[in-house]
């Protein structure tokens, strides 16, 4: 789950819509920690297996991958050198001696040989890509036949809450529209299964992972409703106003209404989707056009 962060333009933003500020890094870390049990449940890789985390960002998920698969050989890539530096520091601080190799690379052009990995893990990355199906199909090159791909994405259409608020819904819709205008899809969670199937994966299993916060879960309301979701929507304020989608006053009222749902008598619902799929063996005919020379 990401954000268009309007206060980050001065940073190493490149083509990535979210920016790379310290605030965004903290948000991603808080999000990953709050959701670790929900999102990482069922993901543990065998000792000695070769695992690639694609788009590791600041290492927010990497620390959880390492914790759950201490014997795996993990490689983590991202296009942002600054994020990789933060990821390195985060993992060194929380898991000293962890077996992680870091590489600055674009997932569309990975510097690894064919079938270099047994498992791939991709979290909150596809939502930013203009052609996620092509990206998923391309990742198959570095995944050995029979190896697995695990994908986690959110879906902002799954956000509903009490008290309901048209202004809060409008603020969320602005975030969805801005992400779409940047070539991404904040509603991608519901598409994981068809995307993976279309990209050539087999034995695809996809399912919802729901966050529900209410007065009995004040910690979750703080960490997720306020610290993750409302913070993410709030961060598009400048872009939404600049695009003429809203006024500062209307947007701020929407955010206030969204934050209101974290009170003791409020409720908040959001669903992530997690999918696991297998890279099928390359048939002789299909293999004629796939792959290319190995690298790295
Ligand atoms: C929202 S962050 C998620 C980071 C991390 N997976 C997490 O869950 O905290 C998306 C990350 O994808 C990276 N990214 C975007 N496009 C990429 C590409 N073409 N190749 C590699 N990384 C990419 C960004 O640099 C960013 O770090």
UniProtKB/TrEMBL annotation:
TM region positions: none
Provide the Methyltransferase type domain boundaries: 52-150
* Pfam families the record matches: Methyltransf_11
Molecular function GO terms recorded: S-adenosylmethionine-dependent methyltransferase activity
- Lineage: superkingdom: Bacteria
Q: Which UniProt keywords apply?
A: Methyltransferase, Transferase
Q: Does the keyword Methyltransferase apply?
A: yes
Output this protein's name.
Methyltransferase domain-containing protein
